[in-house]
Structure formats: structure tokens, C-alpha cells
TrEMBL record, chain A:
It is an enzyme of class 3 (hydrolase). Probably deamidates glutamine residues to glutamate on methyl-accepting chemotaxis receptors (MCPs), playing an important role in chemotaxis. It catalyses: L-glutaminyl-[protein] + H2O = L-glutamyl-[protein] + NH4(+). This is Probable chemoreceptor glutamine deamidase CheD. It comes from Thermodesulfobium acidiphilum.
TrEMBL record, chain B:
One of its GO terms (molecular function) is hydrolase activity. Residues 10-41 form the CheC-like protein domain. Pfam families: CheC, CheX. The lineage of its organism: Bacteria, Pseudomonadati, Thermodesulfobiota, Thermodesulfobiia, Thermodesulfobiales. It comes from the Bacteria. The keyword Magnesium does not apply. InterPro entries: CheC, CheC-like_sf, CheX-like_dom, CheZ_family_phosphatases. This is Chemotaxis protein CheC.
Length: 156, 202
């Protein structure tokens, strides 16, 4: 039983009793792949939409994170009957002319594409807006919680 | 470029640029608020994402941030962060109110934004004079939320591998107990140009 904190670009796999967590998400996204049959799940803290061929940190990028997490689940004895949830992808500052403009939205779109290509259902998402999120996934209870400052906590 | 080519000399040079910028920013703020501000620590360091995103004690720590995009000869980002109590104290000084009376309403946000704008503007102006390059700054944008969330987009855009180069200045105004951190991150190609401009090409 452990709590795994996924920092930016990092990932973790958890079993029954474990909590997976990504804190203080702005434009980044906390993605969780959930085994529908066994108590096992994987989380990634995704930063950018496209790896452009880089393979240094697969869970840093939306286009390589899904395949990589699936591989980790397989190695850990997953049934490979997988669904997914995600939250984050905000636009924290109201800017009109910076490269920051739409990185959160592009992250969310790229992840949805990757999930679709991998044939994984996105059960629910809480993306966009202009507020920070912390996500936790309780592997035993299969509960994905999204916490915010001033907007409370919701399960999606 | 890869950050592995950066040596201690390059970081020292960037720290010196940080000193020049921050000195100017502190003078501007001291004049504006008519109070003594001390520049505590200027650092230029190669940090992992998580070191960079945890300037305060937790990624979830609630802070006020003023963001400006740098364009022109270089592309980069300036972000001035204060713990919320410090943000209220500094806005209170500007508005002639006690911090306890302040809400984060439009007035307060506007005051915070203006202070961030003045400081970042002075910082970047000093860099521009020193390097001979021309920079433009976007209008300031302000947000109050988790520390890591205000930084993650900027870190994502400026990262190379799992590292980011952050030039960071901590400032404290003792009389009024305001602590803030000004961070500057250049996009990797721009960092190279910046070093070249001061004769420290990688």
C-alpha cells in the first residue's frame, strides 16, 4: 500500500490499496488507465502534445504516454481490458499572444487521439477552464477525484 | 541544443544577467512603493521539472502569479510569484488598505498585475540594455492558484529532456514582510542566443 506522486512527465503503476496522484496540474494532464477486471491502474502526468520522435520520457508527451502506460500495465499482469479518465489541460493565464495560449487544450486533444488510436474508452474527463487541479486515483475503489482550490472536489 | 553542454561558466553568466535584471526590478519596486526591498538570492540553475515547479513548499501551495511573455529577439517567459498573503500585503500598500480587508477582486488583481508588470518590465529592460537585444513584453496576465499549475505550461515549453534552465530571484521587503520569487525561463534556442550575445556561446 503506497501513495505514488507522479511529478511532471512521470508515471506510476498501482495495485489494490495504492493511491496514484498528480498534484498542481495547470496545462498538464493527469491521465489514468484503469483495468476493468483487475485492481491495477497506471497514471501519467503529461506535459506536451507531441514527442516529435523523442523517446527520452515517454509519459511527458501525449502521443507516447498511452502506449507506454499500456506496456507497463501488461508487464504488471493487467487483464488489458482498459478504460481511461483524465483531468487538467487548463489555460492558467489569460494571454492572447504567447505560446502558452493553447497548450492545455492541445494536450487534451492529443491524448484523446492517442486513446482513440489505442482503442481505449475515455469514460470521463474534466479538462479546460482556467484553474488548477490535483488528481488522485484509488486503485481499490476505482475512484478518480479532482481537487481544486475554491471549486471543491469532484469524482469523475 | 542540449543542456548537457552548459558549463558552470554559462550558469554564472546567466546568474549575472539575473542580478542585473533583478537589481533594476528591485529599484523600480522600491521607488514605486517607497520602501526598502532586499534582493535575497539570484540563482541560475538547471533544475528538474519538479524542482522548478516547487518554488514554494508544495506544488499545491496557493500563490498569486503575474505572467508576461517575452518576444522579439528572444522568446521567453517571466513569472512573478507571491504567496497569497504577500500578494495581499503588496496590493494593500498600493491601494492604501490593510491586507486583511482585501479580497481578490478586480481592483486587487489589477494592483497585483501592475506590480508584476513594473518589476518584470524593469528586469527585461535591464537585460535588453546589457545584451543589446530588443525584447517585447506581452500585457501582464494574473492568476491565483496552485504554484505548480502556474508554472507547468512555461516549464513544458522551455524544457529540454527532463531539465529546465531557470533564472530565479527571491526578494523580501522586510518592513512589510513581502516575499516573492521572480522566475525567467527562455526557450532553448533563445537561451543559446542570449549566451552568444554576451560572448559566452555554447
Amino acid at each position: 500500500m503506497a501513495e505514488y506522486f507522479c511529478g511532471m512527465g512521470e508515471w506510476a503503476v498501482g495495485q489494490a490499496g495504492d493511491i496514484l496522484c498528480a498534484r498542481g496540474l495547470g496545462s498538464c494532464i493527469g491521465l489514468v488507465l484503469i483495468d476493468n477486471k483487475k485492481r491495477i491502474a497506471a497514471m501519467a502526468h503529461v506535459m506536451l502534445p507531441s514527442s516529435n520522435g523523442r523517446s527520452d520520457m515517454p509519459t511527458k508527451y501525449a502521443d507516447s504516454a498511452v502506449t507506454f502506460l499500456l506496456e507497463q500495465l501488461r508487464k504488471n499482469g493487467s487483464s488489458m481490458d482498459i478504460s481511461s479518465k483524465m483531468a487538467g489541460g487548463a489555460k492558467m493565464f489569460n494571454v492572447s499572444e504567447s505560446s502558452l495560449l493553447d497548450i492545455g487544450r492541445r494536450n487534451a486533444e492529443a491524448l484523446e487521439n492517442s486513446l482513440r488510436e489505442a482503442g481505449i474508452i475515455l469514460v470521463s474527463k474534466d479538462v479546460g477552464g482556467s484553474f488548477a487541479r490535483t488528481v488522485t486515483f484509488d486503485v481499490m475503489k476505482r475512484r478518480f477525484l479532482v481537487k481544486t482550490i475554491g471549486r471543491g472536489e469532484v469524482e469523475i | 541544443m542540449g543542456y548537457e553542454k552548459l558549463e558552470a561558466d554559462h550558469l554564472d553568466a546567466l546568474k549575472e544577467l539575473g542580478n542585473i535584471g533583478a537589481g533594476n526590478a528591485v529599484t523600480a519596486l522600491s521607488t514605486f512603493l517607497n520602501t526598502e526591498i532586499n534582493m535575497e538570492v539570484v540563482e541560475a540553475k538547471l533544475a528538474t521539472f519538479n524542482e522548478a515547479a516547487n518554488i514554494f513548499d508544495s506544488p499545491e501551495k496557493e500563490v498569486a502569479g503575474v505572467y508576461l511573455a517575452i518576444s522579439g529577439d528572444l522568446k521567453g517567459h517571466v513569472l512573478y510569484l507571491w504567496p497569497v498573503q504577500s500578494a495581499k500585503a503588496i496590493a494593500g500598500m498600493l491601494m492604501g488598505m490593510s491586507p486583511d480587508e482585501l479580497e481578490f477582486d478586480e481592483m486587487t488583481m489589477s494592483a497585483i498585475s501592475e506590480i508584476g508588470n513594473i518589476m518584470s518590465g524593469s528586469y527585461i529592460t535591464a537585460l535588453s540594455s546589457f545584451t543589446g537585444m530588443t525584447f517585447e513584453l506581452s500585457p501582464p496576465a494574473v492568476a491565483i492558484d496552485m504554484n505548480s499549475a502556474l508554472l507547468d505550461g512555461i516549464i513544458s515549453l522551455t524544457a529540454v529532456g527532463d531539465k529546465v534552465l531557470i533564472i530565479q530571484t527571491s526578494m523580501i521587503a522586510y518592513g512589510i514582510r513581502i516575499a516573492g520569487v521572480l522566475v525567467v525561463l527562455f526557450e532553448p534556442d533563445s537561451l543559446l542566443k542570449l549566451l552568444e550575445s554576451i560572448g559566452m556561446g555554447v
